[in-house]
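Data availability (excerpt). The following record was deposited with the supplementary files.
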Amino acid sequence: MAVRRDPIDVTLRRHGLGVEVLSSARSLAEKQGIPVGEALTRVAGVDAKALANALSDLSGLPVVEEVPDEYLQPEYVLELPLTLAREVGILPMYLADGQVVVGLADLSALSALDDIRVLLGQPVRPVLVPADVLQNAINQSFDKASRNVSDVLDDVEDEDIGGGDDLLLDGDADLLDDPNEAPIIRFVNALLTQAIKQRASDIHIEPFEKDLHVRFRIDGVLYEEIEPPYRFKNSIVSRIKIMAGLNIAEKRLPQDGRIRRRMGGREIDLRVSTVPVRHGERVVMRILEKGEVFDLDRIGMSRETLEIFRELIGRPHGILLVSGPTGSGKSTTLYSAIAEINDPDKNILTIEDPVEYELKGIGQVQVNPKIKLTFASALRSFLRQDPDVILVGEIRDVETAANAVQASLTGHLVFSTIHTNDAAGAFARLVDMGVEPFLVASSLIGVLAQRLVRRLCPHCKVRYSPSDIELHDLGLQRDAIRGAVYRAVGCEECNGHGYRGRVGIFEFLPASEPVKDLIISVADAGRISRKAVELGMKTLRDDGIRVALEGVTTFDEVLRVTREDVIEV
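Predicted structure:
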């Protein structure tokens, strides 16, 4: 009689791993609520596909190595708790020959098949799926199955919205988890989930005399999303405050906090701000997704601009400024620059307000005015930390500007942002702050002004011929158009907006000798701009036209974001 051996033990022996590895994997599985098979891949680097094939040899079950999108049928997971799917490593996928094919991470999940059969009311057929592939499929499937916030609102509108302890449930649960939570928790979770799925950057919750409005900022534009019942007002705000660790009893003062949650396995950070207004408390949540990839090649610079910019960020000292209004992508550009030059032989320090994204291998400090930790004071301290590169979140005052200049003149490369309408305005702004013109000229190596324009949705954009009025507004001749020009339409893929995502347009002004001469002579921003254009600088409008002619955005978008930035030559 053959002795049946533990399949996990067999796999360990095949990989030359001992019993202590299995013990560590089981401990991790219990702690994080994941299958033992997946824990093994994390603890010992066991190949997930090899493990699935080893389990297949022992059980006779087939292996499905990939789970394409069409395998994921949301209706099969609606009744299945996300925590159960993750912990057991099981996912009902698609119907084949009258049976629901169910993916398993390892053979221990076989015991849950009867429960799945009862939940679905259909026969099931198990298959083995590599643990990492299955976990991704579980997250995607629950994401697809998550309900629209309007549907959740219809469900909870007639329920007792509760309060007190009802608002404290769920701890650190996934936003897609338990559909049986208290009504307000379900509503807030659905609201956050929908905002994330629609790629919103901000959620606005605004109380008025008789109405409560919720708006999402998507690709830089605010859209009305939903109007919850007015009686939900205090409960929604209290729930968000609890999630952010704020004082729910304090309704007279502004408060700031942070929410850290998971959605379908993704780490999501939300920066929360509450402000007392006439009819209650106004809440704005900024959505920051962890794991953001910062790459200069992806932000939209032209080849020529990117080449010069890369040369400047490789210099040993000087100040490089990025200018533009709030929400124009300045932080993303600077993070991308720092990510590119981040090497073990460089000491890089940042002072930010607040720290939005954590960068590996970089010392990041958040300002705290309550203890007098400001941009200026931190910058002074940084000079004693032997830095090579310093990022200052924003130059707001003469003290910060003077310290940044001093740092650059003593052999450090300094990155920062400044609020000016164009690149030339940054030079004049520093002089207006009180920095000596000759110090500005000797320390500043370049200024990058930028805006964000919305990308056309590739599924519904339509080619057209621009009108004479459009061309006149852009200062563009018809014979300058080479190739297709598109306009926005709107479809299901882009929620009817016609756009999906954003890309940068840039105006880059290196501090050349003619520009430095103008700075020393205290020339105004207009003269510096005109000289820069003579020397070949492309304005924001010029770069926007380039992006539109490449079929990435529309002339309407270019006009919308650059209407105030035209330079008269």
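Summary of structural features: Residues 212 and 250 are 20 Å apart (CA to CA).
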